[in-house]
Structure formats: structure tokens, C-alpha cells
Design a protein that fits this description.
about 75% helix; about 375 residues
């Protein structure tokens, strides 16, 4: 109507095009500012999470002394077998293994359990942590995904973890009981513990003055879960479809490459539950085949001990670091032996088990019940 083409039209407030340029500049400036805000939030989450993590360890260590008789009298925890079942069930309850591993170290620090019992409790926590992957698979199944694709990763996670961690128990037992790792110790300077006690112990003492050891221990568990939640928010977010997995290409078919990728992603997230849960949507949408996930799970099960290793340095017991290193060494040996010498037979055996469980509802129910009954038996035996 005006005789001008769309390109020739001039906005009434646009004298020389200055306003659009200004608007574009403002929009461009918003993005860097939002990135800065996100970085600052991540730093804040990391600092607060670390503060609460240390506070939780102090609360757990102080409270564990009072909860020790309860564990031995009411739950009958007296042997390494009992602590294996206890750690397994405890991880089911909190749907994570890392907090339970830290609690095991607090028990060790208070001399409630022995180094060997600490080792088996941490092992149990890792067996139980795989359960969350199966839970996420069920959620995908309930949302309309195919059952086999959704539940497979959870079953594979539980199967691979059980078939590697349980043999690793024997190696760990030999390392600890044979005093093979006595020279493998690492401790922070005593001045660091003096600072930690000066900052955190007054807070713990105040809580203990108004409650008792059992309540203090329970509050410590809550603070520990909150600390891990904040630290998770501070860590890099792994986009399963567009980041790490989108770049591997043909490497996804190489067991050692997937082993390294599983170790790397778990190092970034500091959570085996998170790094394995990434596999659920990938498998459900056909991005990754189930057999390619086995070495990934093995790698993830090794570097998941990084946060536990850090926790071992924040307790006074000289055996904490040694116990965690026994876990890392034993599971690494078992995983590498399987990958280098028996991978194809191992892969076929795991996939046969998977097919039987996924494609037969009674077998699936039996599998689920078994995963609950076994740690109960271990706890009560």
C-alpha cells in the first residue's frame, strides 16, 4: 500500500538503523551475563556442597560412636558379610552408593567397624547403587517405552556390577588381610584436621548438646545427601545425545574405548548412578546397543570411587585411604582380566541372562525379588 517493499520499510523509531543494532547488542550481552551467573551459581553450589560434605562427615563420625551398639545389638552386624548386606540395603534406601560409602568411612573413623568390614560395606553400597538405574528404566517403561529397551540397562548394570564386584571381594580380602597395602597410605597434614575441628566441631557439639548420638547421625545422613545434591549441581552436565556420546562414532563398538568413556563420564559426574542412568534414554531411543554398554559400566564402576577417595582423606583413620584403594585395585583387576581375556564369552553370558529376564515376566519378578532378598540374607546370616 505504501509503495515500499518489505525490505525498504523503515521503523518510525529507526533513524539510521541504530535501534536494531542496539537491541541486538543488548541481546548478545544477555547471554554472556547468563553464563557468568550460571558459573557463579555452580561455584556457590560447589563451595556450599563441600562445606556441608565436611560437616556431614564430622556429624557422622561423632554420631557413629553412639550408633555402633545399636547396629550390633539390634541389627546383629558383626561380620564382613553383615556389612556387605547392610551397605547393599542402605544404598537401596537412599538410591545412591556414594553417601553410604562415606558413612562406612565414618564408621571406620569411629572404630565401629573394621577395615575389612568397611571394605565390604562400600562394596555393598556399589551393588545397591545400580538399583536406581533399574528404577529409571521402569519409569521409562511406564511412560510408554518398550520394556526391553527401557529395563535392559538396569538389569545389565546390576548384572555387570555383581559379576565384577563379587569376585573383586576375594582380591580385596587378600590385599587387606594379607597386609599387601600397608605401605599405600595418604593422609592430610594434621594442621588441616586442626582447622576442620576448629570450624566444624563447635557446630556438631551444639547439635549433640540438644539431641543425642542417634539423632546426630540421622541429621548427618540428611546433610550428606544435601551436600551430594549441591555438588551434583556444580558438576558439568553431560548431554547423552549431543556431547560425549555424539562424538565417539565407531569407538562405541570397541570395548576398551567404551571402558575409558564410562570411566571419564563418571569422573565428570562423580556419580555412577548418573553416568549409568545416561544409558537408559540412549538405549530406549536406539542410540546405543546393549552389548556396547558392558565395558562402559565396568569403567564407571571404577572411577565412581573418586568421591569416596576424597572422603577417606577427610577422616583421621589411617586405614580409610587404604580401604578405598583396595576397592579400586581389586575392581580394576577383575574388569581388565574380563576385557582382555574373556570379554566375548562374558558378553554372551550376560546377554543370555538379560534375554531371559526381560522377555519373561515371572523371571523378571524373580530377578527383582532376588536382588532384595540376597542383601537381607547377608545382613541376617
Amino acid at each position: 500500500m505504501s509503495g515500499l517493499s518489505h525490505e525498504d520499510e523503515v521503523h518510525p523509531l529507526d533513524s539510521g538503523g541504530g535501534l536494531p543494532e542496539l537491541a541486538l547488542g543488548s541481546a548478545a550481552a544477555v547471554k554472556p551475563r547468563s553464563r557468568v551467573v550460571r558459573r557463579m551459581l555452580k561455584i556457590a553450589f560447589a563451595l556450599i556442597g563441600l562445606f556441608l560434605f565436611i560437616l556431614a562427615l564430622r556429624m557422622l563420625s561423632k554420631g557413629a560412636g553412639g550408633i555402633g551398639p545399636f547396629l550390633k545389638t539390634n541389627l546383629g552386624i558383626e561380620s564382613a558379610v553383615n556389612t556387605l548386606g547392610f551397605g547393599w540395603l542402605f544404598a537401596y534406601g537412599v538410591l545412591s552408593g556414594s553417601p553410604v560409602a562415606s558413612i562406612a568411612l565414618s564408621f571406620l573413623d569411629s572404630e565401629v567397624i573394621t577395615p575389612l568390614q568397611t571394605f565390604t560395606m562400600i562394596t555393598g553400597s556399589r551393588l545397591g547403587a545400580s538399583f536406581i538405574v533399574l528404577v529409571i528404566g521402569f519409569i521409562y517403561y511406564l511412560r510408554g517405552r518398550q520394556r526391553a529397551a527401557s529395563i535392559s540397562i538396569g538389569i545389565l548394570s546390576l548384572s555387570v556390577t555383581a559379576t565384577t564386584y563379587l569376585p573383586a571381594l576375594l582380591i580385596g580380602y587378600w590385599l587387606l588381610e594379607g597386609n599387601m597395602l600397608d605401605g599405600l597410605t595418604l593422609a592430610l597434614p594434621s594442621s588441616v584436621f586442626d582447622v576442620v575441628e576448629e570450624i566444624f566441631d563447635p557446630m556438631v557439639a551444639w547439635v549433640l548438646g540438644h539431641t543425642n548420638n542417634l539423632v546426630l547421625f540421622g541429621l548427618g545422613i540428611g546433610v550428606l545427601l544435601l551436600a551430594f545434591n549441591l555438588l551434583d549441581r556444580a558438576l558439568p552436565q553431560v548431554d547423552a545425545e549431543h556431547n560425549a556420546f555424539g562424538q565417539v562414532g565407531g569407538l562405541i563398538y570397541r570395548p576398551m574405548a567404551m571402558f575409558a568413556l564410562g570411566a571419564f563420564v563418571t569422573t565428570l559426574t562423580l556419580s555412577v548412578s548418573v553416568s549409568l542412568s545416561i544409558l537408559v534414554p540412549l538405549s530406549a531411543r536406539g542410540f546405543i546397543r546393549r552389548e556396547n554398554t558392558l565395558p562402559y559400566i565396568m569403567g564407571a564402576n571404577i572411577t565412581t570411587f573418586i568421591d569416596t577417595l576424597i572422603a577417606s582423606l577427610l577422616i583421621k583413620s589411617p586405614f580409610g585411604f587404604t580401604v578405598v584403594m583396595a576397592e579400586i585395585i581389586s575392581i580394576t583387576i577383575v574388569s581388565l582380566v574380563i576385557l582382555l581375556f574373556f570379554y566375548r564369552p562374558y558378553e554372551r553370558a550376560i546377554l543370555r541372562l538379560l534375554d531371559r529376564v526381560v522377555n519373561n515376566t515371572p523371571v523378571l519378578i524373580t530377578f527383582m525379588v532376588t536382588m532384595v532378598v540376597i542383601p537381607i540374607i547377608l545382613l541376617l546370616v
